[in-house]
Amino acid sequence: MRKCKLTSCYKEIIGRTDKEFCCDTHRSAYNNAQNKKLFGGMSKRFNNTKSTYKCLQALYPLSKGVNPIDINTVYNNNFKEDIYYKIRSDHNDSDGKWISIEDYGYRQISKTEFLINKTKNNDR
Ligand SMILES: [Zn+2]
C-alpha cells in the first residue's frame, strides 16, 4: 500500500504509480508546509524591510537628514530592525554610516534619536 506523502494523513493512494498524495488538498498542504520551511525566514525579512521602508518614507519629511526623530516615533511607525539592510558610508559625514533600504536611509545618532534621509542616487 502506498501512503499519502502528507505525514498527518494515513490514506492509501489510488491511481497512477507516480501519484504522491491522496488528494489535491493534501498535495497543496504539503507544498505549503515545505515552502514555509524554506522561505519562512526570507518572508519575515521581506516583511520587516517593507514595514521599515514605509516607516522611513513616512518620517522622512520630518527629518530630511538633519532633524532628529525620537526612537519611540520610529518604532511606533513599525520600524523593524534587521541586519540585512544595506550599510553605506556617507563621505561628507565623518562618522556617517547610514543603513539604507532602496532610496531611504537612516542612522541612529544617539540612544534615543534617528536621522532619516533620502539618497540622491541609487548606486547599487
Ligand atoms: Zn492525504
List keywords for this structure.
124 residues; alpha+beta; five-stranded antiparallel sheet; binds zinc ion
Question: Secondary-structure map with pairings?
Answer:
Layout: H1 24-63, E1 69-70, H2 71-76, E2 86-89, E3 97-101, E4 104-108, E5 113-118
Antiparallel strand pairs: 1-5, 2-3, 3-4, 4-5
Zinc ion binds next to loops.
Explain what you see.
Helices cover 37% and strands 18% of the residues. By secondary structure, it is α+β, with helices and mostly antiparallel strands. The chain has one domain. A 5-stranded antiparallel beta sheet has the order 1-5-4-3-2. The longest helix is centred in the middle third of the chain and has 40 residues. It is rod-shaped. Bound molecules: zinc ion (ZN). Zinc ion binds next to loops.
- Model regions low in confidence, pLDDT < 50 over at least 5 residues: none
Report the radius of gyration as a whole number of Å: 23 Å
Task: Look at the structure and give the mean pLDDT.
Answer: 89
Bound molecules: zinc ion
Outline of this structure?
The protein is of the alpha+beta class. The protein has one domain. It contains two helices and five strands, in the order αβαββββ.
